[in-house]
Each structure stands twice: as C-alpha cells, then as structure tokens.
C-alpha cells in the first residue's frame, strides 16, 4: 500500500519545475492500480510547517504504507527534517531515486549526501541574493514597497497567490476523484466534492459545475 505526498509552491509549478500534474503522472505510473491515498500540500520548500505532510506520515504509521514522492525535494529541502522523517520508521520511496532503499545504511548515506548538497546549494543561492541586494542598495536603488500603489499591487498579488494555492489543492483532490471513481463530467465531480465535504472558496460545501471549471482553469 502506498500513500502519495504532493507538494507545489504557490507559483503553481514549484521550485523544481515539477508541477502537480507531473507529480501525479509519475506517481500514478508507479503505483498503477494499487491502493494509494493522496495528500496535497501548497507550500514552499523552505517551510517545515506542513499539516498535509504530518497527516500523510500519520497515515503511513497507522497503516504501514510506504510514503511515495515524485522527487526528493518535494518532501523537504531541509536536511534535518528529511533525515528525521527517514529515521522515524516510515518507509519512503523517492521516484527520482528508484534504486535507493532508505531502510538500508547505504540508502540513508546516499540520501544524506544528496540532502547536504541541496542544503549547500540553497545557502549559496541565499548568499548570492543577499550580495545582489546589498549591491543594489549601494547603487542607490530603493528596495521594498513603500508607496501606496506598490502596496496595493503587493496586496493583489497576495490575494492571487492565495487563490492559486487553493485552486491547486482542489485540483489535486479532483485528480484523485477522477482516478478512483472514473468521474469525468464537471457535474459528477461537483457532486463528489459536495459529498466529501470539500469546502469552496466561500467556505461552504455546495459545489456547482461552474465552480469546478473555474478552479481547474486557475490551477492549470
């Protein structure tokens, strides 16, 4: 039995270039017709506060299922967090590292090295970004959003990012519904979402076909 964990950033595609659909395709091809519960997280790789990941890991411990992710960095980019998960006793399958068994000393060693390299790369990017900002400031470039127009634009961008995150999360649920039930029409999908108690953007559970279409269009 497998439990799939998907993570995308609020920019829709995620920092690794693996969007939700690509992750779903990779995992569906791996698990095929086997039972597979799914959890979708919309969060950046640098944030370790992951309620969906916590739920996925709890489900793995309860059922003895293997956690499967499309790529190592979809699980985490933090070496301590990743190794803590691996050492917790949950079997993890990374589809981009198909030959690595995290239950063996060699497998753990390989993952450890890859995570350390990813962390090193992350620190280099952060260092370069800080250096670029310092150079821009030294040239007299004004940083930040201090005027009202800029603040308004930033606010609209935040609202749009939140809407994108919601759409991506629901799109993941819709993908699971299609795979498990064979539902293909917007009306059927709306009925299943309502029956499952999935909340709309307004906070109710009364889904209409047009709402499903709007969510999928935004997540695409």
Q: Would you give an account of this structure?
A:
The chain is of the alpha/beta class and 220 residues long. It has 2 domains: 2-112, Resolvase, N-terminal catalytic domain (Rossmann fold, 3-Layer(aba) Sandwich), CATH 3.40.50.1390; 148-219, no CATH class. The protein has 8 helices and 4 strands. Helix 6 (148-181) crosses helix 8. The two termini are 29 Å apart.
The total tally of domains equals 2
Q: Whole-number average pLDDT? A: 80
Q: Please give the share of residues in helix.
A: 55-70%
Strand content: 5-15%
Q: Could you give the order of the helices and strands?
A: EHEHEHHEHHHH
Strand order in the largest sheet: 2-1-3-4
Our count of helices gives 8
Number of DSSP E strands: 4
Distance between the first and last residues' Cα: 29 Å
Helix-strand category: alpha/beta
Short structural summary:
With 220 residues, this protein is of the alpha/beta class. The chain has helices at residues 20-31, 51-63, 72-75, 79-87, 105-138, 148-181, 186-196, 209-219; strands at residues 2-8, 36-42, 66-69, 92-94.
């Amino acid at each position: 039995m497998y439990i799939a964990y998907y993570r995308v950033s609020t920019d829709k595609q995620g920092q690794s270039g693996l969007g939700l659909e690509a992750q779903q395709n990779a995992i569906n091809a791996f698990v095929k017709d086997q039972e597979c519960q799914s959890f979708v997280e919309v969060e950046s790789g640098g944030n370790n506060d992951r309620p969906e990941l916590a739920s996925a890991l709890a489900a793995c411990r309860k059922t003895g299922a293997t956690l499967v992710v499309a790529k190592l960095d979809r699980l985490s980019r933090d070496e301590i967090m990743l190794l803590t998960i691996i050492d917790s006793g949950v079997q993890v399958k990374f589809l981009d590292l198909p030959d690595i068994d995290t239950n063996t000393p060699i497998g753990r060693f390989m993952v450890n090295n890859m995570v350390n390299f990813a962390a090193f790369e992350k620190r280099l990017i952060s260092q370069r970004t800080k250096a670029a900002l310092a150079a821009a400031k030294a040239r007299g470039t004004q940083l930040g959003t201090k005027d009202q127009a800029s603040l308004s634009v930033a606010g609209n961008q935040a609202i749009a990012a939140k809407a994108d995150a919601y759409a991506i999360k629901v799109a993941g649920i819709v993908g699971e519904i299609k795979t498990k039930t064979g539902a293909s029409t917007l009306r059927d999908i709306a009925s299943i979402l309502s029956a499952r108690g999935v909340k709309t953007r307004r906070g109710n559970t009364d889904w209409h076909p047009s709402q499903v279409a709007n969510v999928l269009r935004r997540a695409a």
